[in-house]
Amino acid sequence: MQKKKIIVAVTGASGSVYAKLLFDNLLTLTDQIAKVGVVMSDNAKEVWRFELGNSDYDNYPFDFYHKMDFNAPFASGSAKFDTMIIVPCSMGTLGRIAHGISNDLISRAADVILKERRKLIAVVRDTPFSLIHINNMKTVTEAGGIICPANPSFYHIPKTIEEVAQSVVSRVIDLAGLEMDSFRWNEEN
Ligand SMILES: Cc1cc2nc3c(=O)[nH]c(=O)nc-3n(C[C@H](O)[C@H](O)[C@H](O)COP(=O)(O)O)c2cc1C
């Protein structure tokens, strides 16, 4: 299997734990990954500090890019990143992507992934949804993106918040085409 080049964008929706778990999971999958480029919005950092009580995103050994750094390789289709995961994805970022408003590196990278017909996974988070949100999810889906809501499952009988959140992150890992041991309904683990 060819090693993947992955973009992870973290935005200011609630659910920083999803980003943290994805980072932790990706660290265990280095045999399948050539590169991880990360971009965080300002609110993503604020929400992470608020919800997780730390700034540990700074400690991950990935390639971090400022949200306005259009010199990042994945701001252009020529860099050939395979997959972009937006986790969690705010309604604001979703709306900018749905309408092609590439005014920061996150929305530009998503625009590139869609135009190059590569894989965009948006872990959207809000509740309830307005018709604007639903229409934006429809638009991104029609453009080839995958809307993977931050809706955890409970049939693996989670005991901690992280075990709850991992059910979403495991689906994201599957969607990204990465191989990882995780809970499978009615399969031996
Ligand atoms: C604690 C906190 C939680 C938030 N949760 C959400 C959320 O779940 N979904 C959402 O769309 N926006 C949420 N927001 C609002 C976004 O952070 C805000 O709309 C921001 O402008 C999004 O910009 P970004 O996509 O560039 O991060 C939250 C903000 C704060 C401070």
From TrEMBL:
Residues involved in dimethylallyl phosphate binding: Y155, R171
Binding-site list for FMN: G12, A13, S14, S41, S90, M91, G92, T93, R125
Domain Flavoprotein: 4-175
One function term, GO molecular function aspect: flavin prenyltransferase activity
EC number: 2.5.1.129
A family per Pfam: Flavoprotein
Catalysed reactions listed for this entry: dimethylallyl phosphate + FMNH2 = prenylated FMNH2 + phosphate
Keyword annotations of the record: Flavoprotein, FMN, Lyase, Prenyltransferase, Transferase
InterPro entries attached to this UniProt entry: Flavin_trans-like, Flavoprotein, UbiX-like
Role, per record: Flavin prenyltransferase that catalyzes the synthesis of the prenylated FMN cofactor (prenyl-FMN) for 4-hydroxy-3-polyprenylbenzoic acid decarboxylase UbiD. The prenyltransferase is metal-independent and links a dimethylallyl moiety from dimethylallyl monophosphate (DMAP) to the flavin N5 and C6 atoms of FMN.
Annotated HAMAP family: ubiX_pad
Family, per entry: Belongs to the UbiX/PAD1 family.
Identification of the protein by name: Flavin prenyltransferase UbiX
Gene name tied to this protein: ubiX
